[in-house]
Design a protein that fits this description.
- Helix content is about 30%, strand content about 20%.
- The protein is an alpha+beta fold.
- The strands form five sheets. The protein has an eight-stranded antiparallel sheet with strand order 15-12-14-13-19-20-17-22.
- Among the domains are: about 110 residues, Uridine Diphospho-n-acetylenolpyruvylglucosamine Reductase, domain 3, CATH 3.30.465.10; about 180 residues, FAD-linked oxidase, cap domain/gating helix (Vanillyl-alcohol Oxidase, Chain A, domain 3, 3-Layer(aba) Sandwich), CATH 3.40.462.40.
- The protein is built from 13 helices and 22 strands.
- Strand 19 and strand 20 form a beta hairpin.
- The two termini are about 15 Å apart.
- Bound molecules: flavin-adenine dinucleotide.
- The site of flavin-adenine dinucleotide has 38 residues, from strand 3, helix 6, strand 10 and helix 10.
Length: about 450
């Protein structure tokens, strides 16, 4: 441990429980990592970055105590949910305390109006299962739902399954309120409601530790899964775009893959067809047959259809969508990495054509639709990129931007560069208010100039 070993003893005595202060090197290393290795660029930057100790609080009062101590001793604090982020968001750059929130995992209440009140460490899969018992479900969730925490989703995620109907996490007042602890000489618990939630949302834990979250749910639907193969990517995209855009379809997932992406999905080989593009759907069971009929009329081959039996369903098609697609690709060939893009609804085909013309098989299309805050259906994408050099990757990003494709760059390790930083600077302003010394996840909000970092 590079930090003074007395810090661990002092924090243990504050908590009155030494077992929740971990200095065992291997465990600290494990809890300092996330999925940053998805990016060959971040891998080089973040390998070997590690905290000095892990602290596992069980309530907001303990977090206040720990933050008061760290403030007084100029110790960095990096919040951690489940560590499934894929941009090094939860990797401490300056050592210090890793604040592991996994023990704060209570669902306090699911209110009659469908708002869940939760602690940050609750796993999204647990929340989804509990919500469904009382006829609600998550509006949107990452494909890492089983492991990922609610606090981590708010801190570092954006959207996922469900976003085609309900938008991303920051849209449609899905996050109703967040209580967060500040990093000041006397840490406060501050309630952010309405627009003020955007101060804390997607700030990577740089400006407050979320301790209580009010999350709006949506009425539960009986879902079915459906996989449809098409001879060409164009036909698959036309069909999926039509279903995504038509509000009469009740859907939770519309994902389109160019071949050879489906060839990476070995556990669900039976849903794929050699050489063909593939679309995965989650649709209301009541509409599943109609969807199959519509797909056949458009030249589709229904390769799988069946009821969705919750997160333990096998196959679970969502396990191959959103950023899981990248994971399967890396499993097949380590040279694959990815981008996160939003195409223009009106010119998406022309944009894709130009990308193919310039980069050929170096870019493989994996499309995910989501509803924007203004109601527009966005043809989003997490395309696979066959990585050769950082220069070539940057060339692709520049070209995307040149032709009007928005890129949330997953190969940078700061909030501002990642594409979801607010142009009204509310996250930065909150950091200036709540963390004037710059001790929360230091180095990740680069427009903030820290004064008191010790290393
Ligand atoms: C295979 C794979 C698929 C993925 N798919 C998606 C997807 O579909 N959609 C998506 O949005 N993301 C996706 N992700 C990214 C990630 O899984 C999600 O964003 C997830 O919700 C993060 O939750 P976590 O608990 O693992 O957070 P962590 O990785 O632990 O933390 C994420 C960030 O939030 C901060 N944080 C954690 N808890 C708090 C808190 N209480 N208060 C303040 N800050 C906090 C951390 O400091 C960190 O900066 C994927 C990642 C992988 C590896």
């Amino acid at each position: 441990m590079s930090t003074d070993p007395r810090h661990a003893a002092a924090i243990a005595s504050l908590l009155g429980d030494g077992a929740r202060v971990i200095t065992h090197r291997q465990t600290v290393e494990q809890l300092s990592r996330d999925f940053y290795w998805y990016s060959p660029v971040l891998r080089k930057q973040l390998d070997g970055k590690v905290g000095d100790l892990v602290v596992q609080p069980v309530n907001a009062r303990e977090i206040q105590d720990v933050l008061r101590y760290c403030h007084a001793n100029d110790l960095a604090v990096t919040a951690r949910g489940a560590g499934t982020g894929n941009y090094g968001q939860a990797v401490p750059l300056h050592g210090g305390v890793v604040l592991d929130l996994a023990r704060m995992d209570r669902i306090e209440e699911i209110q009659a109006d469908g708002v869940a009140v939760c602690e940050p460490g609750v796993r999204l899969g647990v929340l989804e299962n509990e919500a469904r018992k009382v006829d609600w479900e998550l509006r949107c969730y990452p494909s890492t739902i089983v492991k990922a925490s609610l606090g981590g989703f708010l801190g570092g995620g954006s959207g996922g399954i469900g976003s085609v109907a309900h938008g991303n996490l920051r849209d449609f007042q899905t996050v109703r309120a967040i209580e967060a602890v500040t990093m000041e000489a006397e840490p406060r618990v501050v309630l952010h409601q309405g627009e003020a939630v955007h101060d804390i949302l997607h700030a990577w834990g740089t400006n407050g530790i979320a301790t209580r979250i009010w999350l709006a749910l949506t009425p539960a639907v009986e879902w079915s899964q459906c996989a449809i193969a098409f001879d060409t990517f164009d036909a698959a995209f036309d069909f999926s775009e039509r279903i995504a855009n038509d509000p009469s379809w009740t859907k939770r997932l519309v994902t389109t893959f160019e071949w050879p992406i489906p060839s990476f999905f070995t556990p669900v080989k039976q849903c794929t067809r050699e050489g063909k593009a593939l679309v995965f759907f989650l649709v209301a069971t009541a509409q599943c047959e109609a969807l199959e009929t519509a797909a056949r009329k458009s030249g589709g081959d229904v390769t799988y259809s069946g009821p969705y039996l919750g997160l333990r369903a096998r196959p679970l098609l969502s396990d191959y969508t959103w950023n899981h697609t990248t994971l399967w690709a890396i499993g097949a060939d380590e040279a694959y990495t990815y981008l996160q893009c939003a195409f223009h609804p009106g010119t998406v085909r022309e944009q894709m054509r130009r990308l193919k013309e310039r980069f050929g098989q170096e870019i493989l299309f994996h499309m995910e639709f989501w509803k924007a805050g203004d109601g527009q259906m966005i043809p989003g994408a997490i395309p696979l990129v066959y990585y050769t050099t950082e220069e070539r990757l940057n060339e692709m990003i520049s070209f995307c931007r040149e032709i009007g494709v928005f890129v949330a760059n997953p190969h940078v390790n700061n909030v501002e560069g990642g594409g979801r930083y607010r142009s009204d600077n509310v996250q930065l302003l909150a950091k200036q208010r709540y963390d004037p010394k710059g001790l929360l996840n230091p180095g990740k909000m680069i427009t903030f100039k820290p004064e008191a970092l010790t290393r």
